[in-house]
Each structure stands twice: as structure tokens, then as C-alpha cells.
């Protein structure tokens, strides 16, 4: 299969994406977080192709992307807490795990057979595509399962070129980090995946503490132990560099043996967590090469966006 790449700003590009999706095809679409591999969430064959193209386990649910609250209500039951979160953070990088609406027509593969569905309202071209299609899009990150998430069209093409019909190129993603996933449950808010909206922002907006979900079951995307991984081994909290390691740095500080590093990428020379989040997957993608066997990552603070950055790094470093 030949994968076409179109500029998202080109005349007719959005129309072409809608035609492709309406025919059961797959389109990599840019969002404010990462590029998503989109298929019609109500078309079982299209959703199955998403799993096939990514090599994704079928027990791992997908996010259903909507263009407005009316579409969200067609597939999910939103209580007062969910509505308050949607009004504050949608469109934007927040995903809500909600009970399936009684009349929901999303294919069971999207929910991995669960009684809940993960819902998000993205910004940018994806929103317009969904509006014109008139149906939600199932859209995990547009990469092979478990590998580094894509923040540019080139990242997508390197991972999925020849496996999907179309890539819409809108340049680098603004956040460069996936959405935060939360689940309103019994008057509480459960954090299922930290992401581009911080815990502090959510708690300030809703007036409820955010509790980290317990248990080993997968309730949402991005909860696999090994995920977002480059080819080489990743070592975290590195306070020294061993000969031949490639260093992922943060801030202006130096670490022992840095002169031995095979290469050095600084996520943010100024120690800015938002800049580091935006650069994280691009840095890992640069190091996702057969000749890069070992990667050392300097410590990164565990507050604000640092929580999400460390979550992705922990999964990248997990045994495979």
C-alpha cells in the first residue's frame, strides 16, 4: 500500500481525509498532543485495521474522539463532574473514561469489551474531520504498538508508512505528550494516565482531589507496563554517564562522565517542564535507531508535567 502524505493546510486535504475514513480507511491526523491513527469508531473493520496496523493487543482500549458535547453524549453518560471537566478542558488534551451510553454505537473493539469508553475532544484538523464525518474517530497514537509516540508526520511515516492510506501533515504537535486520562467514579476522580493537563490544573478546576487508580487491570489506553519505547535500553535517574551511553539531559546541570556520552539531547536547557514534555518523544525518536543501544536519562522533577514525563519514561524503560 502506498501511503500518501498531504499538508493539512492544502486545499481539499480535509475532504480527502473524510472520504478515506468514510470508506473504512485509516488516516494519521495531527492533534495538539501527538499524531493519532484514526478510523471510524463505528466501523468494526476500520477499528480492526487500527489494531492490525499498530500490532496493538486487542485488550487495550482506544480513545473515541468527538467534535462536540452532543456527539460525546451519543456514546457516553456524562455526570456533573464529567460535564464540569469537559466545559473546562474541552477541546483539549483531557480524556474522560465514562460509562457507555445505552444507545452507543461505537464498535466493541474500541472499548476492548469494557462497559466504559474513553472520550476526548481534540483541537485542530481532527475536530473538523470528525465534524464533517459525523461520527467519532477511534485514534490511538500513530505508531507501532509500544514504540515512541509520533509528534511529526515523518515519525508516523517511519513507523506506519505502507500500512495506512493517508497522513495529514500539520508540523510538530504543540504539546508532544498524550492526553491526561481521568475517570469520574462515585464522587471521586481517578487518574488513569498523567498527561498534558496536570493534576494540579484538574484539582484546581474541579475542587476534587485526584486519586491514582489502583489495581492491575487495564481501564484506559497507555497503561501497558512497557510502552513508548525506543530500540535501545533506557536507564532512568542517571547521575552519571557510562561510556557509549546516549544522554537525555534536563536543565543546565551536568552529570559525572558526561564527556563519555555518545550524544547529548537536552529536553529543556532552562529546566522548563512544558518544553521538556513537548520535546520528549522527538528526542526518543531521534535515539530510536539500531546503533543506539543504551540511553541514560537525567532526573526530571516529579511535579506538574514532570509526572507525565516520568510516567512515559518509566514505561519506555520497562522490561519488554
UniProtKB/TrEMBL annotation:
Record keywords: ATP-binding, Cytoplasm, Nucleotide-binding, Nucleotidyltransferase, Transferase, tRNA processing
Reactions the enzyme catalyzes: L-threonine + hydrogencarbonate + ATP = L-threonylcarbamoyladenylate + diphosphate + H2O
Annotated protein name in UniProt: Threonylcarbamoyl-AMP synthase
Keyword flag Chaperone: no
Record-stated family: Belongs to the SUA5 family.
Domain of life, source organism: Bacteria
UniProt-listed Enzyme Commission number(s): 2.7.7.87
InterPro entries, alphabetized: DHBP_synth_RibB-like_a/b_dom (IPR017945), Sua5-like_dom (IPR006070), Sua5/YwlC_C (IPR038385), Sua5_C (IPR005145), T(6)A37_SUA5 (IPR010923), TC-AMP_synthase_SUA5 (IPR050156)
Residues in YrdC-like domain copies: 11-197
GO molecular function annotations of the record: L-threonylcarbamoyladenylate synthase
Pfam families referenced in this protein's UniProt entry, alphabetically: Sua5_C, Sua5_yciO_yrdC
Function, as annotated: Required for the formation of a threonylcarbamoyl group on adenosine at position 37 (t(6)A37) in tRNAs that read codons beginning with adenine.
Compartmental location: Cytoplasm
